[in-house]
Amino acid sequence: MAAALQQTPITFRNRSPLSAQLQSKPTSKLSLSSNFKLTRVTLKPLPRRRRGGATMANTASGSYASALADVAVANGTLAATAADVDKLASEVFSDDAVLSYFTNPTVGEEAKREIADEISRSLGLQPHVANFVNILVDMKRVDLIKEIAAEFELIANRLTETEVATVASVVALEPQHLAEIAKRVQKLTGAKNVKLKTVIDKSLLAGFTIRYGNSGSKLIDLSVKKQLEEIAAQLDLGDIQLVG
């Protein structure tokens, strides 16, 4: 597959220039530097212009995400590509030091590409995702990686008919309970697949909440906190102050 991505042209439905680069641009030879240390540089973020109510960054991130999705669909690697993008956003570029390094204009492009290649190797990224990272470095768009990851997740979920639901609870729920919640969400939404994201929220006291739908617009609240609020409203007691 790697050889095919680097040598054999692939036909895409969306023939965007970026898609063509992803398909044909070979990954540069890995250059590992065992003693490399990221230099912390504090940069002031540049203001982002708005156009039509959306930021320019959001528009660009959507374009990059769409181009990457085109390649992943053509290769039949959408799920694996989504996993790679998530690793980049959550395991690497969530570190401010890493992001500052790649957005530092005083660092040479070649040095950035070498570190990008080392990151791709260490994460075991697919060749087209490694190429994608290098393109972001070349285009000085690494600062968009988190937005691109979010946009890519939306695209992948739409293509796979996946509903994402966020489950908040006081303690981690057992796998069987999460499976039942996933079935409930699937029945409510008619989605082909359901992806659950879990968060801990001590303010719920007990029970859990499920948020799903477009931008989490729908909520199922089965928490003790909600029940106490309803009791307070019925008794016209206002907010209940718990002591303990």
From TrEMBL:
Annotated transmembrane regions: none
Gene Ontology BP, a term: ATP biosynthetic process
Source organism of this protein record: Salvia divinorum
Family: Belongs to the ATPase delta chain family.
Quaternary structure and interacting proteins, as annotated: F-type ATPases have 2 components, CF(1) - the catalytic core - and CF(0) - the membrane proton channel. CF(1) has five subunits: alpha(3), beta(3), gamma(1), delta(1), epsilon(1). CF(0) has three main subunits: a, b and c.
UniProt entry keywords in alphabetical sequence: ATP synthesis, Hydrogen ion transport, Ion transport, Membrane, Transport
Gene3D superfamilies associated with the record: N-terminal domain of the delta subunit of the F1F0-ATP synthase
A Gene Ontology term for the protein's cellular component: membrane
NCBIfam families named in the record: ATP_synt_delta
Protein name as annotated: ATP synthase delta chain, chloroplastic-like
Protein localization: Membrane
